[in-house]
Structures are given as structure tokens and as C-alpha cells.
Amino acid sequence: MSATVSGQASGQASVQASVQASGLAIGTVGGPMGKQDVLAWIQRTRVVAVVRAGSAEEALQAVEALLEGGIDVIEITMTVPGAVDVVREVAARHGSRALVGAGTVLDARTAEACVEAGARFIVSPALDEPTAKACRAMDVVHAPGALTPTEVVAAHRAGGDVVKVFPCDALGGPSYLKALKAPLPHIPLMPTGGATLQNIGAFLAAGAVAVGVGGNLVDLKLLREGRREELAARARAFRDACRPT
């Protein structure tokens, strides 16, 4: 990953300048989209599919199945081999059909490379101040990770548009999220970790603006066994479970 990110980051100064000049989050493809547009899309879909895969090709296959099932907000984690190039390929293939973001982003250089590749939002497992600063400069939606109330407030004050509550299931899942929202109703929260078809509705009812879902949605075993249609069906089930009642 580091070699890819280094190559992509060579042009980060010009990318950042163009983003600042326009006031919009801009990728190499897909055209301009403001932060409020991105946030509205995430809140409309209500589920963010977290793609962790063993290869770039596997990640791309997972994205295709997710889109077939109606899940159109997709986070490509930087643990995927060649992750920045995967972001670029998804953005190139699907344009305005999918909202692609980058996850497990740990530093500003990687964030800038992902935005240059077409990422519309940046997700991190923890708060990294330089990454937060870079996202603010690029006017890109940023979801830093936090767990405790102190961490959640710090992430919000650092400019987090949404705070990723991770790993939310470690402290009780929906009940913990509800407890966080009571004193912090003004902070948009995106719980990640432990969401299933059975409890995703409870996460949303507890106040989540959206829910990040990894392996319980993006089941790579289905792909590896040639059961892509089952992955698409699972995506449809999650989509339907997230519809407002």
C-alpha cells in the first residue's frame, strides 16, 4: 500500500489547490459534489458497506454485487492491496451511481491520494489530527473514529462531519450508542462493528445517521464460492432493513 500511496501522493499539492479553489470535493472522475451532497447521500442510504478483501479484483467483485443489491455507499479500506487504485477504478466505472469512500485512512498523505483517486469521504479508525486538517483543507467529508464520550467530542471538535463509533459492539452496540446520543444529540454518529440484519434497525433507532457494516454484509466467502447472487441478495436485505418505517 505504501508504494501506491506514495505514487498517488506526488500530485497532492495540485489536488489540494484545486479542491480549495472550487470549494467542492472533487475526484478525478464523477464531477463536483459538495460535502452536504455527500452527507445527504450517506444519510439517505443509511448503511456504509465496508469492503475488506484479499485482492483488488475481489474488492471490485464485491462492489459489483453490493451495487446489484442496492447498496451504493461503499468504503474501500486501505488494507485492500492496491486500495487507492481500487478507489479510482470504482469511481471510474460507476461515476454518479456509487458514492465511494476510503476507510482505514491513518495519515494525511493517504487521505489526499484517495481524494485524488475519486474518494468522496474519508473514514479513519481513530482521530489523526493531520488527517483531519487535510480533509478540512480539501473540503471532504471526514469520519474519524472514536469510542468514549471524550473521544467522540474531540473528533467532532477536530472537524469530523460524522464520528465513527468503533468498535461499537465492544461496549454494547445499540444500547451504547443510545447512551452516547443522550448527552451528545448534536454529533452525527456512525456506529461500526457488530451490525447485523437483526440489529441494524436498533442502531438506527438509537440515533445513528448511518451504520458501517463489514463482514456481516460483505461476506467474501460467498464470492470465493461463486455465490455472488447471494451477496447481492444480502445487500438487498440490508437495504430494506434500513428503510425508514
In short:
The chain has helices at 2-9, 12-22, 35-45, 56-68, 83-94, 108-117, 129-138, 149-157, 174-181, 200-205, 220-224, 228-241, and strands at 25-26, 32-33, 47-51, 73-77, 99-103, 121-123, 141-143, 145-146, 163-165, 189-191, 211-213.
Q: Distance between the terminal alpha carbons, to the nearest Å?
A: 42 Å
What's the Cα radius of gyration? 17 Å
- Kindly state the mean pLDDT as a whole number? 89
Structure annotation, total helices: 12
How many DSSP E strands?
Answer: 11
Sheet with most strands: strand arrangement: 5-4-3-11
Question: In what range is the share of β-strand residues?
Answer: 5-15%
Q: What gross morphology would you assign? A: globular
Helix content: 40-55%
Question: In terms of quaternary structure, what is this?
Answer: single chain
- Largest sheet composition: 4 strands, parallel
> What is the ordering of alpha helices and beta strands?
HHEEHEHEHEHEHEEHEHEHEHH
Q: How would you describe this structure in keywords?
A:
alpha/beta; 3-stranded parallel sheet; 11 strands; 48% helix; disordered N terminus
What does this structure look like?
There is one protein chain. This protein is globular. The protein has helices spanning 2-9, 12-22, 35-45, 56-68, 83-94, 108-117, 129-138, 149-157, 174-181, 200-205, 220-224, 228-241; strands at 25-26, 32-33, 47-51, 73-77, 99-103, 121-123, 141-143, 145-146, 163-165, 189-191, 211-213. The chain contains twelve helices and eleven strands. The chain has 245 residues and is α/β, with parallel strands linked by helices. Helix 4 crosses helix 12, helix 5 runs parallel beside helix 6 and helix 6 packs parallel to helix 7 (129-138). The strands form four sheets. Strands 5-4-3-11 form a four-stranded parallel β-sheet, with helices on both faces. The protein has a three-stranded parallel β-sheet with strand order 8-9-10, covered by helices on one side. A two-stranded antiparallel ribbon has the order 1-2. Helix content is 48%, strand content 15%.
